[in-house]
Write a structure and sequence with these properties.
The protein is of the alpha/beta class. The chain contains six helices and 14 strands. Strand 1 and strand 2 form a beta hairpin.
Length: 271
């Protein structure tokens, strides 16, 4: 299991309005572990000067700092020890953002696979990883299936399942079939980041362990409502939860279900 460090300070850039709840540390013989220290990405200087940045949360790993930049719906990028890693780049907010060293795509739907955005963000040497269904539509994609891993040197990428259990466009059909898309577990130094992709509360999510930061989708009818997502989060207990892909959802449902769990819920403006 990864070593845990005390964390819970938070910085924000003016591009987003950010709130943070701080819990007072109780004097106990065995204190509860806290997430890594959070600071403004402006202090790290890891992204090239002049880039149009989204606001960022930052945390330290033994492999270097990681800055998280929420952008839109399911789209965000991370500055991982100076490398730019994009997750599902799509939509009108991608122009003017930093070029990608790595692009991870979870599924074939248009809010995850946007060929024009991918092309806009690519540079010489950019690696694009995605499931086989994505590779069939996007030439140059390195196909990675559920259960497979890629060691990129500065980061390890593990593809994990994402799928619907019951929700679909018609009886007997699902919005996301098992095996077609990928969630991802990204290992950077001593920290593990989970990105759910479009999924319901599946057994594979509940079975996750040692997750430091989790991005979990929550909207219906395509994935699951926040209260259902929260029950899954209770099972694997990430230190930090970022709700994303939540258009039209009531995120206050998370507060009720996750109260007292110690999960630091960070609600950011993705829309």
């Amino acid at each position: 299991m990864p070593q845990r460090f005390p964390w819970l300070q938070y910085g924000a850039l003016a591009a987003l309005a950010i709130g943070c709840n701080r819990a007072e540390k109780q004097p106990k013989p065995s204190p509860t572990p806290q997430p890594p220290a959070v600071q403004s990405a402006a202090k790290t200087g890891a992204v090239e000067a002049g880039a149009a940045l989204a606001a960022a949360d930052s945390f330290e790993t033994t492999g270097g700092p990681v800055n998280i930049h929420p952008l839109q719906h399911a789209t965000f990028f991370m500055d991982v020890a100076g490398k730019i890693v994009w997750l599902d780049p799509a939509g009108e907010k991608t122009p003017g953002q930093p070029k990608a060293d790595v692009i991870l795509i979870s599924d074939i739907h248009g809010d995850h696979l946007d060929a024009k955005a991918v092309e806009r963000l690519k540079k010489t040497g950019t690696r694009v990883l995605g499931p086989r269904a994505v590779a069939e539509q996007l030439p140059g994609t390195d196909a990675i299936a559920n259960g497979e891993t890629r060691d990129l040197g500065f980061m390890k990428v593990e593809a994990v399942p994402m799928y619907n259990l019951k929700r679909g466009p018609a009886p007997g059909k699902l919005f996301h079939d098992k095996g077609r898309g990928n969630g991802y577990v990204l290992s950077v130094g001593d920290k593990r980041v989970y990105v759910s992709g479009d999924t319901e509360c599946i057994p594979e999510m509940k079975a996750l362990r040692s997750i430091d930061v989790a991005f979990v989708c929550m909207n219906v009818p395509y994935t699951m409502p926040p209260n259902e997502a929260a029950e899954c989060v209770r099972a694997f207990r990430p230190k930090v939860l970022y709700p994303y892909h939540y258009r039209g959802s009531n995120l206050e449902e998370l507060d009720t279900v996750l109260a007292g769990t110690g999960v630091d819920v960070r609600k950011r403006n993705w829309y």
